[in-house]
Design brief:
Layout (H helix, E strand, L loop, with lengths): L1 E7 L5 H13 L2 E7 L7 H6 L4 E4 L9 H8 L3 H9 L3 H9 L2 E4 L5 H11 L4 E3 L1 H14 L11 H10 L6 H8 L1 H5 L1 H12 L5 H17 L3 H12 L5 H17 L7 H17 L3 H15 L2 H4 L6 H14 L2 H6 L18 E7 L7 H8 L4 E7 L4 H7 L2 H10 L4 H16 L2 E5 L3 H6 L8 E6 L19 E4 L2 H10 L10 E4 L20 E5 L8 H12 L6 E5 L9 H20 L2 E5 L4 H5 L4 E4 L8 H8 L3 E5 L11 H4 L5 E2 L2 H11 L3 H18 L2 H13 L4
Length: 711
């Protein structure tokens, strides 16, 4: 019997692979599969293929040395797979007995080559077609007859890059050679390769993927994306076109780049979704729609950059989406069968406060209504229960349910898990309009009143577009400019069935921030919170440099943890630039990094000027807390909202907001010119903050909302 060992770094196309396995078995081969991709989600499909064995190779290097992990991060994908797999005993044993080794994808080629070289296996191949021919040769010559020494790796790799069925080797040689890809001439050549007329779709797709890989090897990420997009333009099948464009934009997203062909990718997924929806295949339609929304609202595009397409024309950005049948079906209001019951008069209001893991803005609300004689309070963290967490963030299942327009297994599951809470509560207050809001609105709430609070982050995600706002009674916004943005994005919020809109500030206990300032605080600029690109701390650094040109006593104090470089390449790039700019300033003492703290009021005693350097904010709690501490507020006119009817200038008092770093420096120098002017400016800021945003003031708005009380 011929032993065939398949090795894969990525999930193979299961339909094609299943057909091929059957052909290998018809030839009497024993088939085994080892992969570093996650085997468990496709265990049933693999079992149906009747492979003789499957094996999960290590998926990462988490338990290996720091040095090896660092080396892996800098290595090509193929070498990383070998680092993960080389110690695997099962793989070694099966490779020792194998007659044919098969790499199912480019990432597995290096591992196959290393095993073949070590165990002197001559029949080592990339791809299923040449492997089938190899099985025939082994049968003719006898198992083990072809063991020998492989040619050098560069020769194997060159052969691999050439081998695309039906495509002349000369074309592939020109298209994928790394030196060619590095040249501008080569960048034009690959377009000929992937858009050549008369090429079968499968060959075109395979070719474009080889070319894209070669472009990435040459450091041309955008070129790789262009290769895939160019090939997609020649493919008539909507599903294949959408898939290839998806791959194209994801390559650029992975490098922190806003993709040039994003609109094409989103449009292709929506067209595919429309076609599947028209055919009645709601499952496939929901997959395509989910990808369209995921790509259109990718965090690299909207969150991890200093701007976003939504800043220029939010309504125009989403308009093409809402012209499709699937988005129209998704946004069709389901409504509720009965209106919410009025608050009870003969017993306390039963209030359910819920969120999923993020309770940052709930503490004061929970304290107040947990000890309120007119309220019986329950708190539900959906993330704390596995079953609830699973349904709360099941975005694709939400889409499938909405497109089907009837009862689904998902809807039944939501009904079963959430109905006991809805039956108990008179009012549900859900914080954050994200996954849980979309989940909750797939079912009719009965006569329970539903209140949802939307902060700012949600506007840049796909979740509001997946929420049925006709089943929400009251929607709380934290600021007018956020309300303007969200309503421009979501057509349902502009219709007659939209929930009642409320503007209520975040719950903050600001009285504890009013503490005496320390000596020297007057010359300390402060920035509280630097964990996101949108905070743009480099703007504050520029302001610092400008004021230090007049007086070197000024320093910048940074409160909070650093950005997480693992969030995205865009975040990593900004963080790298920020650290490079900061290093000499920290060394000289001009910048002091205080790091994260649980005691912000104490940190603010050393800060005399509180800054908001962000490109966008909801309300910027850090600035409000700093103002309450009697630090002089200097808020950037957040570029995302600047010049619009509502912005930082309409949220804060006149004089707090500045239009440039030069204007910020002038305000600081004027406000801190003397001890007296600084103290006076800080006192006025504190009085405004405490009289406007302190919890005793804001709590009245919540009492009115929940209880109908005017206090």
């Amino acid at each position: 019997m011929t032993n065939v060992l398949f090795i894969a770094s990525a999930r193979p196309q299961l339909g094609v692979f299943a057909d091929s396995v059957r052909k290998f078995r018809e030839r009497g081969a024993r088939t085994l599969l080892a992969g570093t991709f996650h085997l468990e989600p496709v265990a049933e499909e693999l079992a149906a293929m009747e492979l003789d064995a499957t094996h999960q190779l290590p998926r990462n290097l988490n338990f290996r040395s720091t040095a090896l992990r660092r080396k892996a991060r800098l290595s090509p994908a193929g070498l990383r797979m070998w680092m993960q797999s080389e110690r695997d005993g099962w793989l070694r044993r099966q490779a020792r007995q194998a007659d044919v080794l098969v790499a199912l994808d480019p990432g597995a080629v290096y591992t196959v080559w290393r095993l073949a070289k070590y165990y002197r296996i001559g029949e080592a191949h990339f791809g299923l077609a040449p492997a089938l021919k190899a099985v025939d040769r082994v049968k003719e010559q006898g198992a083990g007859g072809q063991r020998g020494v492989l040619p050098p790796l560069d020769v194997v790799a060159e052969n691999v890059r050439r081998r695309v069925d039906g495509l002349p080797a000369a074309v592939m040689r020109r298209a994928t050679a790394r030196p060619v890809m590095r040249s501008s001439v080569g960048a034009r050549m690959w377009r000929t390769a992937v858009t050549a007329p008369g090429m079968p779709p499968k060959v075109r797709i395979a070719t474009s993927r080889y070319v894209a890989e070669g472009m990435q090897w040459a450091g041309r990420t955008s070129g790789a994306a262009l290769a895939l997009a160019a090939a997609a333009s020649k493919i008539p099948d909507l599903g294949l076109k959408a898939q290839l464009l998806d791959e194209a934009v994801m390559k650029e997203f992975a490098k922190g780049i806003s993709p040039r062909d994003l609109n094409k990718a989103v449009t292709a997924q929506l067209a595919h979704a429309d076609a599947q929806f028209a055919a009645g295949d709601h499952e496939k339609a929901s997959f395509a729609l989910d990808r369209a929304l995921f790509l259109g609202f990718h965090r690299v595009l909207h969150i991890d950059q200093l701007s976003s397409p939504l800043a220029k024309d939010a309504q125009g950005f989403v308009a093409p989406m809402y012209r499709t049948k699937v988005m129209q079906a998704l946004s069709r209001p389901q409504g509720r069968k009965t209106p919410p019951a009025p608050a009870p008069k003969d017993r306390p209001l039963r209030l359910l406060v819920t969120t999923s893991a993020n309770d940052n803005f709930l503490h004061h609300i929970l304290d107040r209504y947990g000890d309120h004689e007119g309220v019986e309070l329950r708190y539900l963290d959906l993330a704390a229960q596995k079953a609830l967490k699973r349904i709360a963030w099941a975005g694709r299942r939400v889409l499938e349910d909405r497109l089907a327009g009837g009862t689904s297994t998902y809807q039944e599951e939501v009904e079963r898990l959430m109905r006991p809470y809805l039956d108990w509560a008179d009012t549900v207050f859900l914080d954050w309009s994200v996954g849980p809001a979309a989940m909750l609105t797939t079912i009719d709430p009965g006569d329970t009143r539903i209140v949802v609070r939307l902060h700012s982050y949600e506007a840049f995600t796909r979740w509001p577009h997946m929420t049925d706002f006709s089943r929400i009674d009251d929607l709380i916004y934290v600021a007018p400019h956020v309300k303007d943005l969200v309503e421009s994005l979501v057509p349902q919020l502009r219709g007659e069935g939209a929930p009642r809109a409320h503007l209520i500030d975040n719950a903050m206990d600001l009285s504890g921030f009013a503490r005496p300032k320390s000596a020297g605080a007057r010359f300390n600029l402060g920035l509280v919170g630097i964990s996101q690109v949108a905070k743009d701390p480099l703007w504050a650094v520029d302001v610092l440099k400008r004021v230090r040109e007049h007086d070197e006593r000024y320093r910048l104090l940074l409160v909070g943890g650093d950005m997480n470089a693992k969030t995205s390449m865009a975040t990593r790039d900004y963080l790298r630039k920020f650290r490079r700019e900061l290093a000499p300033l920290v060394e000289s003492g001009a910048v002091v990094k205080l790091g994260p703290t649980d005691d912000v009021p104490s940190a603010l005693t050393d800060i005399g000027v509180i800054m908001s350097s962000s490109v966008r904010e909801g309300c910027h709690v850090g600035l409000m807390e700093g103002a309450a501490s009697a630090a002089v507020p200097v808020a950037r006119d957040w570029p995302f909202y600047a010049g619009k009817p509502n912005s930082a200038r309409t949220l804060y008092p006149e004089g707090w907001v500045v239009g440039s770093t030069e204007e910020a420096a002038q305000r600081i120098l004027q406000a801190t010119a003397t001890e007296e002017t600084w103290l006076d400016a800080g006192k006025l800021a504190s009085e405004h903050a405490l009289s406007t945003w302190d919890w005793p003031v804001v709590s009245k708005a919540f009492d009115k909302l929940f209880l109908g009380e005017e206090q």
